[in-house]
Amino acid sequence: MAEEQTGLEERIIRKDQHTKEIDLVNRDPKHINEDVIKVDFEDIIAEPAGTYSFDGVWKTSYTTFTVSKYWCYRLLSVVLGIPLAVIWGFLFALISFCHIWAVVPCIKSYVIEIQCVSRIYSLCIHTFCDPLCEAMGKIFNSIKIALRKEF
Q1: Model-level pTM greater than 0.70?
Q2: Hey, which of 11-15, 124-128, 144-148 has the most confident mean pLDDT?
Q3: Cys-Cys crosslink for 81: which of 9, 19, 34, 77, Cβ 3.0 to 4.6 Å?
Q4: What single DSSP character describes residue 17?
Q5: Quick one: which of 82, 90, 94, 44 has its CA closest to 64?
Q6: Who's near 53: CB < 8 A, 6+ residues apart?
Q7: For residue range 74-132, what is the model confidence (pLDDT) as tens digits?
């Protein structure tokens, strides 16, 4: 029984990430477009006090703006959404590929190679600079500075 449970858990864990359920109600769960895209009629068009248009014009303008924004977005999503999703998917796949197969190996190679240079540099510093600094320290060790205020 325990083996069957373990096998079931492994199959659940191995479930493909691409087949997960998506939330059709909350389409921005990480709130990446919270501050950017919220554009309503009141954010774009406003009439100051004393310069009002006819009520019918104002209501029609509001309805026209809202409906045209809604349907234009839907139309653009249908026409350009899938091709742009393919392009963005390809771009991020390319970035991931370059990072995995080029950037990280180059950095690791650099770190390995720089360790050798670091040891040689450290040896040179300790061989030549340490005695010089010690000698200069002993020379200037006997110098004393006194500050006095004169009125």
Answers
A1: no
A2: 124-128
A3: 77
A4: G
A5: 44
A6: 47, 61
A7: 999 999 999 999 999 999 999 999 999 999 999 999 999 999 899 999 999 999 999 99
Q: Is 107 helix (H, G, I), strand (E, B) or coil?
A: helix
Q: Which helix (H) or strand (E) holds 144?
A: none
CB 70 within 8 A of CB 41: no
Placement of tokens 């921005």 in the chain: 28
Please give the distance of CA 96 from its chain centroid, rounded to a whole number.
14
- Sign of the dihedral defined by the CA atoms of residues 110, 112, 115, 116, in that order: negative
- Residue 45 contacts by C-beta under 8 Å, 6 or more apart in sequence? 61, 65
Alpha-carbon gap, residue 63 to 57, rounded angstroms: 10
Cβ atoms within 10 Å of 59's Cβ, excluding its own? 10
Q: What angle do CA 39, 40, 46 make, to 5 degrees?
A: 115
